[in-house]
Amino acid sequence: MTNGWPDNSPDRLEDICVQFCATNIETFAAKNETSGQYDLQEGITLPKSICDKLLKALVDIKPSTVHENFTIFSDTARSQLSSICLRKSRINDKCLKLLENQPIVDLELSNCQELTRESLKTINKFQRTLKSVRIEGRSLFYNCDENTNALDESAVLECPNLRTLCIQDYDFNNPDDLVLSTFLLTLPRLTHLDLSNCGLCAEHVTSFQSLPQLRSLNLSNIMKEDGSDTENKQLLTHIGQLKSLRHLDISVADDPVKFLQPDKTLSDLVSALPQLVSLDISGTNLPGYENAEEEECCIVGLNGRQFKFLGLLDCLHDPCFRENLPAEQVTGHGTEDQVLLSVQRYQDRSVMLCSALNKLFHLFQAGVVSDQCKALECLLEGMQRHPADPHVQISGSASLFYIAKGDQKENLTQKQKRKVIDLVLDGMEAFSSEKKMMRNGCLTLCYFNVSQDVLYCYSRISRVLLDMLKVEQEDDFIHRIGIYLLNCLACQVNKQQKALVGKLGAIDTMLMIIKKKLDKEECDDMMEVAWSSMWNITDETAENCKRFINCDGMLLFLRCLKMFKDRGELLRNMMGLMGNIAEVKDLRHQLMNSSYITVFSDLLDSTSDGIEVSYNAAGVLAHLASDGPDRWCKDKPSREDVLSRLTRAIKRWDITSKRNINYRSFEPILRLLVHFDTPEVQLWAVWALCNLTKVYPEKYCELLENEGGIPRLSVVLNDPRSQQDIKELITSILQNLQAFKEKPDEEDMDNT
């Protein structure tokens, strides 16, 4: 750990192998064509240490198909599971039965909608080893008859060694229903019981007395805001009979529960539970008003007791701001520690988690979060647990933005960065119509290094951004960021990736944006970056150049040129794109008409954006002329006039001009050196190489040499057909290369 942050070390080799095997299941398993499930290949036995990890990885990668893989773990001689989490998976009764001989210790079946009460029989087969069960949803304890919503009285867990039981989102609200009481009678060793969000009556709590070892009771969201004071007090009275309780949670997530006599009610409860050291009363008024005369304890109802933990999130009258709170740990929003503990502790409760995330966001806004590593880990876990909750995703992504741009961002490990990016994209895909989500996601992504952090998911992020750009927005802000990100990505990727983003509709989308701007007669940074993006993704990518032509891009080019002829950066970007098209031999005939040639020729005289517009226009014309006089358009301007203007423009440029251009390859330029029949074409090529190797030797001298430029230049230099000005430029290029080679490295220079 460095300043609280983990080391930037790779995953353990075992974890990498497990992830690979889960992604490529055929490496160790074979699909049974009859059943459609996977079996372990002959001769393979899975080490016990990786079985739990492998199943978790299979669930995480694709929970909807994990049921196809359960036969892998059916033979305990070849695989052994102890802890399994099947949250939101499509596992059914038959699949779970395949595991009945496994020595399961911990079992989670949250929101597994295809399980029925039949699976209770399988769970009971784990009775010898099973210590912890977590169940959310309705199916396991309800009758399978579609015409009834009644609890099934035969639904019983026979696991006498069970220590922890969590059942959430069940309605046990009928006081005459004995299912819960019967259920608990079979669990004599239970120490932790969680019935959060269940419908309970006060009478149900009396059945908890059948659990002599019960130490922890979670009844979060059992008390109701619309319930009477008498009903809620009766519930607390029954809880007070559980004398061995050390932890009690009676928090409320939505509207606060108000007692008529909060101080007395809390005092009676605490007095009845002498061993209590942990109490969560979040979302209630039980802390009462602060009593300034009480010096030892600022919460009157706690009777001066000290606690290890006290939950005060969203309590009325903000008790979390009081001094001398009687607990080692407190949830609330009075301090950074309180907020971070809230985010950490309420991971499974989306409403309370969202409240805590909003409070964390306000701390980030104020710039007062010091433990950003802990904040990040809590944020990531919360967002990962609630992928379908837009409130959690939006609140979480808002804080991720501040971490990504904050002064501690350099401490982020590569693993953390990828997790942030993946979760942001998850949220943007799931909630593409939520403006706040898209805005937060785009802003967060902007602060990552494109070449180092983002390229691993280039296809996915491109698809998300393009889909976003196709949707109408009230303002251009989100579109502006999206285009900026796409352009940054396009600058860093290879030819195959550029072709991919073209297939995803990048050209069509950029042209759509440009057309809308033209219709409004607007030329802003969005217009300029849209052209820049197309310039980048058409670079040495013929299929994208063809897409531009086929989508009537040239018509929009002429419209932009006519309407915004004085916008230097716009002209440079458009002409850069024209240069890419001109490099594609099979597309040059599309540019070979009188209107386009006239436009390109006139731009030779442009002084917009330094020499860039003139330079790009010259490059287009040089490539068009390289096809020879037979391919030149029959109408005016004539080839001779254009080549004459081309020469005059080149000789006007300053060879030391700074450039706003990025070449990845000189091959398109080097191909022009062989055209001795058109020296104007050669002149443009050698001038370009001379300028770039002179002004940016570190970047372009090695590139030119690596691409075999020196022997090709030497051929032209020694050919008697070459003109003198071309030879002089080649000589200068070779001198630039030699000077670069002779330049000493900085580390070799004396420190004098």
Automatic annotation (TrEMBL):
Task: State the Pfam families in the record.
Answer: LRR_Zer-1 (PF25013), ZER1-like_2nd (PF22964)
- Ranges for domain Zer-1-like leucine-rich repeats region: 183-315
Q: Where are the ARM repeats?
A: 595-627, 708-737
Q: Which UniProt keywords are listed? A: Leucine-rich repeat, Repeat, Ubl conjugation pathway
Domain called Protein zer-1 homolog-like C-terminal: residue spans = 382-738
- Per its UniProt entry, which superkingdom is the organism in? Eukaryota
Q: Which terms in the GO cellular component ontology are assigned?
A: Cul2-RING ubiquitin ligase complex
Q: Which PANTHER family match?
A: PROTEIN ZER-1 HOMOLOG, PTHR12904
Family per record: Belongs to the zyg-11 family.
Q: What name does UniProt use for this protein?
A: Protein zer-1 homolog
* Natural source organism: Patella caerulea (Rayed Mediterranean limpet)
